[in-house]
Amino acid sequence: MSTEFFKNIGKIKYEGRESDNPLAFKWYDEDRVVAGKPLKEHMRFAVAYWHTLVNKGGDPFGAPTETLPWDKSEDAITRAKDKMDAAFEFITKLGVPYYCFHDIDIVDEAPTLSEFEKRMHTMTDYAKQKQQETGVKLLWGTSNLFSNPRYMNGASTNPNFDVVAYASAQAKIALDATMTLDGENYVFWGGREGYMSLLNTDMKREQDHLAQFLTMCKDYARKNGFKGNFFIEPKPMEPTKHQYDYDAATSIGFINKYGLQDDFKLNIEVNHATLAGHTFQHELQVAANEGLLGSIDANRGDYQNGWDTDQFPIDIYEITESMLVLLETGGLQGGGINFDAKVRRNSTDLDDKFIAHIAGMDAFARGLICADHVLKNTNYKKLRTERYASFDNGDGAKFEKGDLSLEDLSKIANSKGEPQQISGKQELYEQIIANAY
Fold first, then answer.
1. What band does 306 get if pLDDT is binned at 50, 70 and 90?
2. Which helix (H) or strand (E) holds 231?
3. pTM for this one?
C-alpha cells in the first residue's frame, strides 16, 4: 500500500456558502445544473502536475522553500512513483477528474534519450494503473522543450538541426505516453520558440521549421490512432523576448497559414493573455470567434508585476466576464480548465495546495453561475443587441450582406448628415455584472 502524503485531509466536500471550512467547496457543487449541464461537465477541472507536485517555491531571487515528502529517494524511478502516488492521492481527495503533465514532471531526464524513454515507459505503465484504480483521466500531455540548456536557442526553431532532431525525439516520447494513457488532447507551448534579437535570427525560416515540427507530430499521432485535439498555448514573451505564439490572434494566423486548422486549437492562459496586453476574456473571444477555443490554463498574474506569477484565480469579476464568453460561444472544444497555478512561495503547508485549488474551483463555479444569471435574468443581451440594431434591417443589413458599394455608403452618409451619438452605456453593463454576485 502506498504512503499517505496528505494526512488528516479527507475527500473535499461541498458544504455551501455558509460554511467556514477552508477545506470545503462553497460554490462548486459538481452536480448542480447550470445552463443545461452539471458544473463538472462545464468545468472539466484538471490539476497541473508541474506546479502542484514539482514546484518547491523557488524563484529567480531565492531558493526553494518547500520540502516535498514525496521527493526524498535517491532513485529516479522510486522518487517518480512516490510523486505519482502523491499526485493521485491529491487529485482524488480534491475530487478533480483530470490531470495534465510535462514529460519531465513524470520522471527526471536521463543521460540518454533511450534511458529516458525507458523511464517514461515505466512511469506510463504505473500511471495507467493509477488511472484504472481511481477513474482519473489525462486531459492532456506535453513535452518540456524549454528548460534544459540544450534548448537555450529554442527547440524546433533552434538554428542547430541536431537540437531540432533531439526535440522531435523527446516530443515523440511524450506523444507515446499521452496516447498510452488515453490522453484527450496534447499541448504545444513554445517556451523558447522565438527570438531574443533579430540580428541573429532568420524569423521566416524558424517559423517554417516550427510548422514542420507541428505537422510531423500531428501526422505521427494521427497515424498511431490519436483522435484528440492538438493545442497551441499562446504567450508573448518570457523566457524569450518575442515568442512566435504571441497571442491568440497571432497563433490563429500561424495555424491558418500552415494549414493546421483541422487539427489544432488554442489553450488560453489567463496570465499569458495579460502579459500580451489583453484581457483573458479578449483572448477567449478571439479563439471562440474562429471556432478554436480548445482549453483553458487557469491562473492570474499580479498586476503590479511584469512577469508570469501563476497565482490561483480568484477575481470573480474577471471570471464572470470570461464565463459569459464560454456560455455564449458554446464552451470549450475538447479541453477543460487546468489549474496552471502554484501556491505562493511563503505558503509552505501541504494543505495550502488544497485551499488554493478549492478557492479557484469555487471562483470558476461562482463565475459561471453569475454569468448564467446575467444571461437569463437581466437585460444584458437585450442591451447589446439593441446597440447593433441599425444593422438588423435597411441599409445596415445590406452593408453586412455585402450588397452596398463604397459609392452607396457615400450617398447614404451625404443624405443623412451628421450621425447621432449613441451612448455605449459601459457603466450600466459593469453594474449588471457587479450586481450578479
1. confident
2. strand 229-232
3. 0.96
Q: Is the torsion defined by CA of 342, 317, 289, 139 positive or negative?
A: positive
Residues in the chain: 437
Nearest to 184 by CA among 337, 408, 336: 336
Q: In this model, does residue 1 exceed pLDDT 80? A: no
Please, which residues have CB within 8 angstroms of residue 165's CB and are 6 or more apart in sequence?
none
- DSSP 8-state code for residue 328: H
Alpha carbon distance 282, 91 (integer Å): 31
Residue type, 395: D
| Rounded-to-integer distance, Cα 23 and Cα 5, Å | 16
Start-to-end CA distance of the chain, whole Å, equals 45
Return the amino acid letter for 366. R
Residues marked active site are found at 102, 105
Within its chain, how far is the Cα of 169 from the centroid?
A: 24
Closest CA to 123 of 111, 135, 145, 141: 141
Task: Give the confidence band of 163 by pLDDT, cuts at 50, 70, 90.
Answer: very high
pLDDT band at 155 (very low <50, low <70, confident <90, very high): very high
**Structure letter (DSSP) for residue 32:** -
Task: Kindly give, in sequence order, each residue whose CB lies less than 8 Å from that of residue 186, ignoring residues fewer than 6 positions away.
Answer: 140, 141, 142, 174, 175, 178, 217, 221, 226, 228, 229, 230, 231
**Cell numbers describing residue 236:** 508573448
Beta bridge partners of 400: none
What pLDDT score does 214 carry? 98
Dump pLDDT digits (tens) for 365-403: 999 999 999 999 999 999 999 999 999 999 999 999 999
Residue 145: name the closest of 236, 221, 213, 229 by CA: 213
